[in-house]
Amino acid sequence: MTQERSLSELTRHLSGKTAILDKIEIEKAYRPALSSAGSIRIGDDCAALPDGDGYLLFAAEGMQPSFVAEDPWFAGYCAVMVNLSDVAAMGGRPLAVTDVLWTSALCAIEGIWAGMQAASQRYAVPIVGGHTSFIKSAPTYLAAAVLGRARRLITSFAAKPEDDLLIVIDLRGEFHGNRPFWNASVSAPGLRLREDLQLLSVIAEAGWCVAGKDISNGGIIGTLAMLIRESGVGAELWLDEVPRPENVVLDDWLVSFPSFGYILAVSNLYSEKVTGLFHRRDLGCAIAGKFTPELGLVLRLGSERKPFPLDGQVV
Length: 315
Hints:
Blueprint: H1 7-15, H2 18-24, H3 27-30, E1 47-51, E2 54-63, H4 65-70, H5 72-89, E3 93-103, H6 106-122, E4 127-134, E5 141-150, E6 164-169, E7 174-175, E8 181-183, H7 190-205, E9 211-214, H8 219-231, E10 234-238, H9 250-253, E11 257-258, E12 261-266, H10 271-279, E13 284-292, E14 296-301, E15 304-308
Parallel strand pairs: 3-4, 8-11, 10-14
Antiparallel strand pairs: 1-2, 2-5, 3-5, 6-12, 6-13, 7-8, 9-12, 10-13, 14-15
Helix pairs in contact: 2-8, 5-6, 5-7
């Protein structure tokens, strides 16, 4: 096991990670759309459209072309899986998947479709259509979208000061090759995957959680930076309490992208109920911090505390 860094060393190391910097600066990519968004908030895991006594949820994700070229089956699997996670992160249940696929590499098509179909079957969410093009001069591009429905929402905009900061991760996995992706999905029983995802809608419908986000590229640090910005609050993250697998150092874990991982803001009235619900499913879940009134992120390790820069500066 690699020697753990001191808090100062860890903060310096993480502040230079491209994946985290990309999350800190992600608002630049959608800022031009804010003026025309109307009543639809931008920056959440899904678009949430009021519909009757609940909401329709619409999520979409694109895969990096290099990822698709190097690992077509897993890219196809992930195109479906990450969208299902986005729907769950907002308290919803997924209904259907569509794809967008442009390619000139017919040799990759079989693997991509096999991966998408495997995820569709394991999570019992059908692929109902999409758009596929064969363009001889183009590289392969892959994206997918998922429609879902929620009765009550978990959003990125509702974390409040003094809420407990809960981290939930399925630790029963392994890193996928040399990528920072913690894969607890591909080898897991399909029924377990489906029932675990439903826990997010359970806590939303019970009123136990109204704010949170799924842990994506940029890991826990990058995702938490997005959540506090959208909610206009701060957070203190207790690194000693973060659920993590044995023999995985904080350096790697804090920037990992888990197949099942969420940051939740939960009132202390409900924290015990929420953690108990996840523990009964053998999922890692812990109160790993607090949300605070003043925008900013503080890391705590042992008795040490250190601010983490949210301005893109390396400390």
